[in-house]
Structure formats: structure tokens, C-alpha cells
Amino acid sequence: MRVALMVTCINDALFPRTGQAVVALLRRLGVDVEFPAAQTCCAQPMINTGYLDEAVPVLRAFVEAFAGYDAVVTPSASCAGCARHQHAIVARRAGDPALRAAADAVSPRVYELSEFLVDRLGVTDVGAYYPHTVTYHPTCHSLRMLGVGDRPRRLLEQVRGLTLLELPGAAECCGFGGTFAVKNADTSIAIGTDKARQVRNTGAEVLVAGDNSCLTHIGGLLSRQRAGVRTVHLAEVLAATA
Amino acid sequence: MSATFVGMPPFPAAAREKLADAQLRRNLAHATSTIRARRAALVAEVEASVDGGWEALRVAGAEAKDTALRSLDRQLLRLEETLTANGATVHWARDAAQANAIVAALVRAHGADEVIKVKSMVTQEIGLNEALAAEGIAAWETDLAELIVQLGDDLPSHILVPAIHRNRAEIREIFLRAMGEVGRGAPADLTDAPAVLAAAAREHLREKFLRARVGVSGANFAVAETGTLVVVESEGNGRMCLTLPEVLISVVGIEKVVATWDDLDPLLRLLPRSSTGERMNPYTSMWSGVTPGDGPREVHVVLLDNGRTRALADEVGRQALRCIRCSACLNVCPVYERTGGHAYGSVYPGPIGAILNPLLRGVGHSDQIDALPYASTLCGACFEACPVRIDIPRILVDQRAKIVDAHRGGLPTPEAVAMRTAATGLGSARRLAGGERFTRLGLWFARRVGAPAWTSARDLPPAPAESFRRWWKRTDGGRR
Ligand code: SF4
Questions:
Q1: What is the pLDDT of residue B1?
Q2: Which CATH superfamily does the domain covering B71-309 fall into?
Q3: Neighbour-count burial of B292, counting CB atoms closer than 10 A to its CB (0-12 exposed, 13-18 middle, 19+ buried)
Q4: Could you report the per-residue pLDDT of A181-204, keeping only the tens digit for each?
Q5: What is the pTM of this model?
Q6: Which one of A150, B51, B226, B396 is most buried, by most CB atoms within 10 A?
Q7: Greatest CA separation found in chain A?
Q8: B399 contacts in chain A (CB < 8 Å)
Q9: Fold for the domain defined by A133-239
């Protein structure tokens, strides 16, 4: 099985540790993951802001980078959701049957990390050790776009040393929403402030989620509030060992 | 009543003002979370007791609406035929102005200077009350919440609970101040106990029910097969308007038609559970034209387009015409819960408003409308809650693309320049120095376009010493 890491543009630039964690975790589980260097972005920022023409060259680069792999693994439900549900829209817009075929070939092979671990590798105990009190925020796109369900939870429950605290209203949005976070900054902050309060009230020291964009938003609020709660990507928790 | 949504600023500015209203935030958080919990309990009940669960019911409801929408031309002609056979008179209105003129002419023809109204979204959409007022005809709202909005010279902020932004104390003040000006006043010793407020409204409205000669309604459904209109409500005030006056005028959007009586079955089960969180609504009124000796002696039905055929022509957006105005999408929306309905600048607020307004009225000509599809985080809670499976996030993204397309060719905004530059950079990354270029571009974008909006309340994470791809190259993917 040839497996590619789709690190995502945000993680490449701002959160390399998340990408490194996916690499370490997959190697530990016996997967020799490759990193196609031609990859850039899934085009979600363009698609969700309405710039479909601008998304076309980005999609071309995407399908070229990831063609031929059996699985493309990404530590972002949002980017996986974009590839699986939105790339066809862009390909149709391009009016290019070859691009459409290439996108249709890659899309179903794109997995969010927890899906790949649980469904393709069939593991929930990844041998991790993380001695911290944690609460988990299931991001909207993981829940409602991909339907990853309780997979991340099942993975976290097997982590040694980890105490998982329930997050009230967990399924509610954090208010990030991509360019919404700056186009409607006031509303985004209002929603995020309520989420941050729920997180603080759990008493957890670490907030875990499967998407660094949501974590940047909630974490940015928690940091400004000097709340003393860290945000850590699910991949980094699962990669941690004693 | 002079309150109007016209001239409302675009969503971000309107929302900013509403977010500062602490009372509104409390009222909304309380009301939406209460109704969410009630709806969730009933959905769970269906899940456990109906074959195929809630999802099967949603599919059946969506199919009932789609069946009619797919053959809308034939269903409407059939409806006209059956209604006419039942003794009703059918009128066709292309837009708001035509519909308003038809209603005003009918009222005047009967020598009336007032009408009593059943709560209806469509008559608000067309601004009927204001149009009638301009003709010297008073339109009295009889739904309790609509009465509060009308007496308060206010605007509705929710489809189902239009006064959701008001609390009891405010309602008491409105009643004391305004009831006497338009009819029987509130008693001087009025308290803010719900039962006392309801009793004052009952006394006030009774006078109008008994006096009025013309009633005006919308309809939740119109059955083509039988020529039957259906109104679903909680208070019974609607039924008073439907049965007491001599003349009944119903304004009905053309998307309200369903083909057969049986199609009502899933829809009447989905609607109350999704809207008020009840198994069944207290009052369901159905009437098929004129019945001698029972109810109105003259029944008029105004079938209204007002942008619906425009929406029907939209391949992605046409599913929005399935909407049964239950407001479940409002109650689960993280944006609506914070801003309330007024920020959307329309009688249709929340997620459905964010798609319906641009679909009915078109994009590219109003900053207010063009801002609506962006008033969403695309969290998907609306689609999950919608009883007729309208994929609202999908339509939002599609409308955004139509808005961007409508502005192509003009002076590009900083956002458009950034997107174009990013597209060039990302698309050619394989020929250039990989994604390094993109990384730099992303940081440039963050600093130039998004930074002040981001950092007003949120810290940015510290930039790492090296990007992932540089680390991979330097260490051969961590192997050295
Ligand atoms: S879009 Fe769906 S959830 Fe929203 S009001 Fe219409 S039917 Fe209800």
C-alpha cells in the first residue's frame, strides 16, 4: 500500500509538528508514508470563499501530486472533506473531463487521520502514552461533512495515562469557519468565546481536536484569555510515547 | 407600522451591533437551547419508533416536496382547477406589487378598511401590511408574537417566534403603551406574568375578531389533488381568522403546493417536531374552497411567484423551495444564536434566509444580499437539522461562487487579488520551488488581509523555525 501524507498548507507553514507526528505515528504502525513534495493546498479557501476559477489550477496541482497513491492521509477533516465532497464541483466548473476523472480517482482515497487508523489499519490502540487531562472538540467537518463519528474518541480512550473529560456542547461549532473568521470576525469571536468557556469549565489542561485551523481559533482565544489551556492536535497525542 | 428592513447594513456591521446586546444574547441562548432540546427528544422518539427512523421520514418529506416541484407547472394548474371547482377564486401574482394590489382591491371591493391576519411569512415577504396601510386599510396581526412585534413597531427576528428577542418585561411595556392606541387597551394593573399578558392579548384581539369582515392568511401547504389549503398553528387565533370573517384571502407561494393528500403525511409529522418541538401542533386548519353555511362565504387564493421561479431555475439552489419554514435551522445555527434575526435584514433570517434571499432576489446588485451567504461558518448543523434535507452549506458555497462571478470584470477587491495570486502560486508550485512559495504567500495574506481582524481578540501561534517541507527535506522525512 502506497500511502501519501497530505500535510495541508496550514500545517506545512504553521504546525510542522503535526505533520511530524503523523509521520512518526504511521511509521510506528508499519506504514512507510511518503511526502509528495509537489503538494500545496486542497483549494478549500478558494472554494468556500466563492473563487471557483481560482480553485481550478490548485486542484490540478493537487491531483498531480497525489495521483497513484492507494491512500492519502491528512491530519485535517476539513481538507479531507474538501477533497471528497468539493473537488468534483471544481472539476465540473473547469469543464475538463480529464481533470474530472483524475479528481474522481483521488477523492475517495483521501482519509482523515482517525478514519485511516480505524478503518484502513484497523487499530484503536496505537501504543500512545500521554499523561494529561484532556478534553476533545469534534470539529464540524469531522462530524457532519465526513462523519468520522466516535473514531477519534475510541483512539483517545486507548491512550495510556490520558484522562478524557466530557466537553459540554461538544458538537457545536467553534466559530472559525475559514474566511468567516476574518470576514465576520465579531461573530466568529462571539461563538468562539462560548466554546472557550466550555473548554475552561471542564478543567482540562489540554484541548485536543483533529484540525489545527479550529485549534488556532479556539487556542488564540484561550491564549489571549491567559486561560492556561494548551491546544494540541490529535496526531500529536497519538504519536506521543513514554 | 413603519418598521422596515430596507436600508439595513450588510451582515457583518449589523451583527456587530446585535452582538453587543447582552439581553438579546441571553434571550436567544435560552430560547434556542430550550427548543433544540425539545426537538432532539422528539427526533430520538421517532428514531426508536418509526421504521427507518427520522431519516426515513426526512427522505419522505423531501420527496413529497420534490415531486411537486418537479412538475410545478402541472401541479399549479391542477390546484387552480380544484380550488375553482370548490368555489374559490384563484389569482396569479408575479411579484409583491401585484399580490398586494390584488389583496387591496379585494378588501376595498367589500367596503372594508381593516383585515385580521393569520401569522404568515409570505405576507411579510411582500410587505402586505405596509401596502394596505398606504391604501388606508389596517391589517391586524393576531398571532401573539406577531402582535407584540406589531405593537412594538418592531421587526420580526425569528420565523416561528418573531418576538424571540423580547422578554416578558418588555412585552408588558409594549402592551401598556400601544394597545390602547389601536383598540382595547391593556388593564392598568397589567403584570408581566405570561398568563396575564396572554389574557390582555385575548381581550384586545377578541374585539377585532368579532368585528372584522375580511381575513388574510398564508398557507403551509396547498394540496393540488383536492384544492385544500392547510394552516398549522399553536394558538387558535389563526382559526378565528379563517372561520369568522365573511371573506378569506390567502396569499400562497407557488412552492407550497403538494400533489396529493397523502403527501401531507410525512410533512405534518416533520413540521411540528422540527419547529415547536411538539408531536403535533395544537391547531391544523384545512379548508377546500367555500362551504355554504360554514366559514367564509368568499374564498380567494393569490398564487405568488416573487422570485420562486428564479430559484427553481437554479440547479443547486432549487432544493431550498422544499423549505417548510420550520426554523429548525435557525435554532441550531451558531451564528443565528449569537446575532439573532435582525442582522440578516430580512423576514427570512438564519441559514434559510442566507440562501433564500439571494435565490429569490438574485445576487450582484445589493451588498446586503451579497453578504448573506458569507454569514455562515459552514458548520453543517442546519443541513443535519433540516426536516426536508436542504443541503444549506452546499447552496451557501454555490451562492458565494455566483456572487464572486457577478463581480468579475469590475475593480478587484484585495481579497480577489489575494485569491488570484494564491491560485497562480499554488497551481504552478510544481514548477517553482514547491510549496515554499505558497507558505510565504500565506503568511503575506495573513499579515496584509486578515491580521487586524484576527488579532483583535485572538493570539496568533508563534511561527515555527522551519516549515514541514523544509524539515522533511533536511531530515529525509525524519530518517536522519
Ligand atoms: S431550511 Fe429546513 S430547517 Fe430551515 S426552516 Fe426550511 S425546512 Fe426548516
A1: 39
A2: NagB/RpiA/CoA transferase-like (3.40.50.10420)
A3: exposed
A4: 999 999 999 999 999 999 999 999
A5: 0.95
A6: B396
A7: 53
A8: 50
A9: Rossmann fold (3.40.50)
